[in-house]
Design goal:
single chain; about 290 residues; mainly alpha; MetI-like fold; 2 domains; about 70% helix; about 0% strand; globular; membrane; cell membrane; transmembrane helix; MetI-like_sf
Length: about 290
């Protein structure tokens, strides 16, 4: 029997709903303002202190940044690092998690080492020395290999593998399958929710790579889009994305630095926003799997 809510509960629910709507609007407003400014013309932007509803939409800022070879190249670098880095993260983390979920020699030692790195980090200087000693400076692998396995993701994924019924793997062993076949044909297909959740985490982390790229990549041609945004936004070098000669040859009028910065931020944000809906179905389930033993 469903109990009717009292007026106090209804009032509390209404207040909570209003507060949640207000909080959502506050969080969405910066994204809305960024979008509006990126489509605003120069004349309308300079005469308005706080632009909320523009009278016209122009694509000058987007045309300008996509005419920039350096920005387009940095976008391609970020896509490459994100795709390859996420694949490496999921492959190595899932393989090690599956191995540690089995009864292997030295299992406790490996688990201790994983937990040790989870609690104690090497720090910037030792990590840089290792990257330099392995010859990864100014290489894209410097952004991928040092973070190939995340300790937290490994522990949670191992717990998820432990929740998979042992009867499945035992039946496969009786049928003559080896561990690699069990991992590829049984474990991975059953792990789609966990792989989707951790894949999204890894993709967002790689897409937002900034400090590592700034630290390890000396060649500006190899910079990621986040480092390029630093050049545009933080250093206020929006007008220097294209040289004056290229601007004259292409007939480009330099838009305000603010609109270029907003457009560049929006372009670098949209791919991750587009990716999330495709993984949402698995994401909500994946973040809970492995949290309890069942």
């Amino acid at each position: 029997m469903i109990r009717n809510r009292t007026w106090q509960e209804k009032a509390l629910g209404a207040v909570n709903g209003v507060l949640l709507v207000l909080i959502a609007l506050l969080m969405l407003f910066p994204f809305y303002y960024m979008t509006i400014v990126s489509f605003t013309s120069y004349s309308e932007y300079v005469k308005t202190e706080l632009l909320l509803i523009p009278t016209s939409f122009v694509l000058d800022a987007y045309a300008y940044i996509f005419q920039s070879d350096s920005f387009v190249r940095s976008l391609g670098v970020t896509i490459f690092v994100t795709v390859v880095g996420t694949f490496v993260n999921l492959l190595l983390t899932s393989m090690m998690a599956y191995s540690l979920s089995r009864n292997i020699l030295g299992k406790r030692v490996f688990l201790f080492l994983v937990l040790f790195t989870f609690v104690f980090g090497a720090g910037i200087i030792p990590t840089y020395m290792i990257v330099s000693a392995t010859g990864l400076i100014n290489s894209y692998w410097a952004l991928i290999l040092p973070v190939a396995i995340n300790s937290y993701n490994l522990i949670v994924m191992r717990q998820f593998f432990l929740n998979i019924p042992h009867e499945l793997t035992e039946s496969a062993l009786i049928d003559g399958a080896n561990d690699l076949q069990i991992y590829a044909r049984i474990i991975l297909p059953l792990s789609k929710p966990a792989l989707a959740a951790f894949g999204l985490f890894s993709a967002v982390a790689h897409w937002n790579t900034y400090f590592s790229a700034l630290l390890y990549l000396n060649d500006p041609a190899k910079w990621t889009v986040q480092v390029m945004l630093r050049q545009i936004v933080i250093l206020s070098q929006a007008g220097n994305i294209l040289s004056e000669g290229v601007q004259a040859a292409r007939g480009l009028q330099v838009p305000p630095a603010e609109t270029i910065g907003m457009a560049a931020i929006l372009v670098s944000t949209i791919p991750i926003l587009v990716l999330y809906p495709f993984l949402q179905k698995h994401f909500a389930k994946g973040v809970m799997l492995g949290s309890v033993k069942g």
